[in-house]
Write a structure and sequence with these properties.
By secondary structure, the chain is of the alpha/beta class. Helices cover 45% and strands 19% of the residues. The protein has 15 helices and 16 strands. It has helices spanning 28-38, 83-103, 118-128, 141-151, 155-178, 186-193, 216-227, 246-258, 274-283, 299-308, 323-330, 341-347, 361-373, 375-389, 394-408; strands at residues 8-12, 17-20, 23-27, 43-51, 59-61, 72-78, 106-110, 134-137, 181-185, 200-203, 232-237, 263-268, 290-294, 311-314, 335-338, 353-356. Strands 1, 2, 3, 4, 5, 6, 7, 8, 9 and 10 form a 10-stranded mixed β-sheet that branches. A hairpin with a 2-residue loop joins strand 2 (17-20) and strand 3 (23-27). Helix 2 (83-103) packs across helix 3, helix 4 (141-151) packs antiparallel against helix 5 and helix 8 crosses helix 13. It starts with 7 loop residues before the first strand and ends in a 15-residue tail after the last helix. 45% of the residues are buried.
C-alpha cells in the first residue's frame, strides 16, 4: 500500500483547457490548483474538457504550473454540452475514465451540470467499479439554472433552464449520495448538500496566497484614511451576470447617492449584463462616479483595486461561495451585501461587514449611508478584516482538502488484486 507521499490522485476538473496550436492553455487559478494538488500527491491525473475556441484572457500556458507539471498528467476530453455530442463522445470518455479509475489510488470528481457532466459520469463509474471516491462542488448548479428559468434575458434560455434544472438537481443528489466523501466549498454549498452526503466536509477553494494578505501597517493606514471621511470607495470584482445582481448593485448605489452619500464605485468584470450596467450608469445620476471597465486579467491589479476600496459591495442571488469575498477580506475590504450562509460564516465572529436580506438594494443603500456618516464604524470593519482573513490562503486550503481525502477515503487496495487494474 503506498504511503500518502507516494499516492496518486485522479480528479475531474470542469475548467476547460483551450488549444492554441500545439499548446494547451488553462485558467491561471486552475494552474495554481494543479500545482497545489501535486504538493500532496506523487502523481496527479486531471481529466478536463478541451475547447478549440479562443481562450479567455485569463488563460495561460499550462507550463505556468511550474516544475510540478512533470508529475501531472492532463487528459483532455471533449466538451459536450449538447445531447448529440455527449452521446457520441460518451463511450470513449467512459472507457478513459474507467481506465484511469483503475490506475489511481485516490479519486475526487467535480460535478455540476447535466448533459456533458463528465464528473457525474466519473462518480457513476467509480460506484460500478466499487471504488471509494470524493465528490466536490463549489456551488449549487441546479439552483443557478433554476434562477435562469425565471430571469434569463432570452426566451430560449429560460425554456431550456425550466426543462433541465430539476433533472440536474436529481443528478447532483444522486452523485452526492453515492460518493464516499463530500467536499463542499463554502457554507452555502455545504448547507445544501450535507444532508445528502455520507461524510460531508466544509472546504474552501482559495487562490490567494499568504503573501497577498494586506500588511498590518497598510491595513491600519487604510482604516485611518477611510475613518477620516471623503467619498465612500466601493468595488465589485466578478462577471456581470444575473446571479451576481449587477442591476441591484447599481440601484443600491443610486439610492445611496440620493440619500446624500458621496461615493466612487467600480464593477470590474465582463458578463452578459455588462452593457446594460454601463448604459444604466451612463444614463443615470452616477455618471462620472461609477465605472464598469470590464475584465481585468492582472491579478495584482485586481488585488490593488480591492485594497484601495473601503468595502466590497455585492448582490449575489444564488447559493454559492464566491472566492471574491475572501479576496476582499485578504485585501482589507469589508463585505457589504446580501445575506447568505457563506458570507455570514466569514464575518459572523469578527464584524468585518454588514449583510441585508436578498433582493433589497434599498437596505444596502441604507447600510452605505450609515457607513458614510459613521466613519469610525467603517474603520473598525476594515480593521476586523485581518481576523476574518486569517487562515484563508491557497496552501492552507489545498492542504486541508488533501488531508481529508487521505484520511477519510479508505486507503488504496492491494493493486495486484484489483480486478480493474490494467494488465
Amino acid at each position: 500500500m503506498p504511503e500518502p507521499a507516494d499516492a496518486s490522485l485522479l480528479i475531474y476538473a470542469p475548467v476547460p483547457l483551450h488549444r492554441d496550436g500545439a499548446q494547451l492553455l488553462l485558467e491561471d487559478q486552475a494552474c495554481n490548483g494543479l500545482r497545489l494538488w501535486a504538493a500532496h500527491f506523487a502523481q496527479v491525473t486531471a481529466i478536463m474538457p478541451v475547447s478549440d475556441a479562443p481562450a479567455p484572457a485569463s488563460w495561460v500556458p499550462v507550463e505556468r504550473v511550474g516544475p510540478a507539471l512533470e508529475r501531472i498528467r492532463l487528459l483532455p476530453v471533449p466538451q459536450a454540452w449538447t445531447l448529440g455530442r455527449f452521446l457520441r463522445a460518451r463511450p470513449a470518455v467512459r472507457q478513459l475514465i474507467r481506465d484511469e479509475i483503475a490506475r489511481a489510488d485516490y479519486l475526487s470528481f467535480a460535478i455540476g451540470g447535466l448533459v456533458g457532466d463528465w464528473g457525474a459520469l466519473a462518480c457513476a463509474e467509480a460506484c460500478r467499479m466499487g471504488r471509494p471516491h470524493a465528490v466536490w462542488t463549489d456551488r449549487v448548479e441546479s439552483e443557478v439554472t433554476r434562477m435562469e428559468a425565471v430571469g434569463a434575458p432570452r426566451l430560449r434560455r429560460r425554456l431550456k433552464a425550466q426543462l433541465i434544472w430539476r433533472p440536474m438537481a436529481a443528478l447532483e443528489r444522486r452523485a452526492v449520495r453515492r460518493a464516499t466523501l463530500g467536499l463542499f466549498h463554502g457554507q452555502a454549498t455545504f448547507d445544501h448538500y450535507a444532508r445528502f452526503s455520507r461524510d460531508p466536509h466544509l472546504v474552501h477553494d482559495i487562490h490567494v496566497r499568504a503573501a497577498d494578505l494586506i500588511p498590518a501597517k497598510a491595513l491600519a493606514a487604510k482604516a485611518a484614511r477611510a475613518g477620516a471621511g471623503g467619498p465612500l470607495r466601493l468595488v465589485y470584482v466578478g462577471r456581470a451576470d444575473p446571479m451576481k445582481g449587477p442591476l441591484d448593485w447599481i440601484e443600491a448605489l443610486e439610492l445611496a447617492a440620493q440619500a446624500g452619500v458621496d461615493l466612487r464605485a467600480s464593477w470590474i468584470g465582463g458578463g452578459e449584463q455588462i452593457e446594460a450596467l454601463r448604459a444604466r450608469i451612463a444614463q443615470g445620476p452616477l455618471a462620472g462616479q461609477v465605472t464598469a471597465p470590464g475584465f481585468l486579467s492582472d491579478r495584482a491589479a485586481v488585488l490593488a483595486a480591492l485594497r484601495d476600496a473601503d468595502a466590497l459591495l455585492f448582490c449575489h442571488r444564488t447559493p454559492e461561495s464566491p472566492r471574491v469575498l475572501i479576496e476582499a477580506l485578504v485585501s482589507g475590504a469589508p463585505l457589504i451585501g446580501y445575506e447568505g450562509p457563506f458570507q455570514q460564516s466569514l464575518i459572523a465572529d469578527n464584524g468585518a461587514g454588514a449583510l441585508v436580506p436578498d433582493g433589497r438594494p434599498d437596505l444596502l443603500a441604507q447600510e452605505l449611508a450609515l457607513l458614510h456618516r459613521h466613519r469610525a464604524t467603517l474603520a473598525r470593519m476594515i480593521t476586523a478584516t485581518a481576523k476574518a482573513a486569517h487562515g484563508h490562503d491557497d496552501e492552507t486550503a489545498f492542504a486541508h482538502r488533501s488531508r481529508i481525502i487521505l484520511t477519510h477515503l479508505p486507503p488504496p487496495r492491494d493493486r495486484a488484486e484489483d480486478p480493474h487494474r490494467p494488465r
